[in-house]
TrEMBL record:
Superkingdom per UniProt: Bacteria
Record key words, sorted: Membrane, Transmembrane, Transmembrane helix
Record protein name field: DUF6249 domain-containing protein
Limits of the DUF6249 domain: 10-115
Transmembrane segments: 6-27, 56-74, 94-113
Length: 121
């Protein structure tokens, strides 16, 4: 295939696919509402439950991820002594693993705080 043909066809295909997805979602939403009306259900009664600890959870997750990234940087530059080798990718797994570990610890602390608050109520 010629490169000019691909450059011309790809945006058209992407537009058609996006329009089809939007139309399909709207169509299915309408069918769901019609089924709810037929069964006598209230349409506007399905509200999302409040999430009072959402900000706490996100805050602790980001704090944990930041601590993990900082600790990985400190370990990489001091313990593994790679401060002078910027192109060295030998210790990349440390960054990912410590971000995941400390992010998980942040979520666990959030869970413990939520559980403690639920038990005191």
């Amino acid at each position: 295939m010629d490169k000019n043909v691909v450059v011309f066809i790809v945006p058209i295909v992407m537009f058609i696919c996006t329009a089809a997805v939007i139309f399909g979602l709207r169509y299915m939403s309408n069918k769901e509402r019609m089924a709810m009306i037929e069964k006598g259900m209230e349409i506007g009664s399905s509200k999302a439950p409040s999430q009072p600890y959402k900000n706490l959870k996100w805050g602790l997750l980001l704090i944990g991820a930041g601590l993990g990234l900082f600790l990985a940087f400190v370990l990489d530059n001091s313990v593994f002594n790679n401060a002078d080798q910027w192109g060295n990718k030998e210790n990349e797994p440390i960054y990912f693993s410590l971000i995941a570990i400390f992010g998980g610890l942040g979520l666990f602390v959030s869970y413990l705080i939520e559980k403690k608050e639920a038990l005191t109520k």
